[in-house]
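re: that chain from earlier
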Amino acid sequence: MKAAAAPLVARVFTALSGGQFTSGEVLAERLGVSRSAVWKAAGALKDLGATLHAVRNRGYRLVAGAGPLEAASIRARLPREAQQRVQQLDVEWSVDSTNTVLLARPNPPAGLAEVLLAEYQTQGRGRRGRAWLAPPGGAICLSLSWTFQQAPQDLGALGLAIGVCARRALDEFDLRDVTLKWPNDILIAERKLGGILIDLRAEVAGSACVVIGLGINVALGSPLLSTIAATGLPATDLVTAGLEQPCRNSLAAAMIAALLRGLLEFERQGLRAFVEEWRAADVLRGRAVEVQAAEGIARGVARGIDVHGALLVETPQGVRRFISGDVTVRPA
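^ sequence. v structure.
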């Protein structure tokens, strides 16, 4: 995101990202605009969900200020082998959806990736058309486009492998209590920390291109966490989980590196390279669950996943196998 081309709201966000109070007068002088323009941009930031304090005689402050995402900074933090596999890495202030943008681009060559991150998504997507909510600075909204030269046998279970990759990356920041919920949720303390959305873009002569969307909550703020909880889907973020002053550029780099290593592993071995790690993190195993699938609703006890990534549920009629669906934990 080039500073000269960035909208004023993005420039004000960057100027306030240190988390300190800055007066409107100082911001106006620094950005070369009027104080009225700064006031309007600050209001726009609040409208986007940012937790912004405005105090007379002190100015503006972003709560839990998070530094802006910067493509050069993220790339510099990647291991050399990952740098060599990232053909293009962009950061945008605002897009409709990072997955949607990459889906509109040509397939990258096999073995190379295109990566897109955004501070804010106007139409952030979760599974089954659900909205993904995240304010500027509050999350990592990342999509990665990748072409498999030969479509892996377990391609439908790629989301489970990506969950393991995300957990590996978070482990680098001493987050030890991360669990996984079939089919695409990343949890801490039974609350949603992140999610995965995979779009299959094209298949030509045996190859397969996927766009992997990964969202991780970093610092959503109490109001948004409460709003999400009111929908019946309790959420959390890295700050709530105890990660002090998380550097989103470092987190993004760790995620990208883990995804690239995992994609190469998945291409060689399929899901079997990830099954044991996934089972160790499985938050549903042994619990009473309800599964809403295309064939109806099933109730029983979750018995983990099979080697192809299907959820196994023990019901009164026997063990059933699900390759898609929504799962909720039933009261004990």
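The first strand starts at residue 52 and ends at 55.
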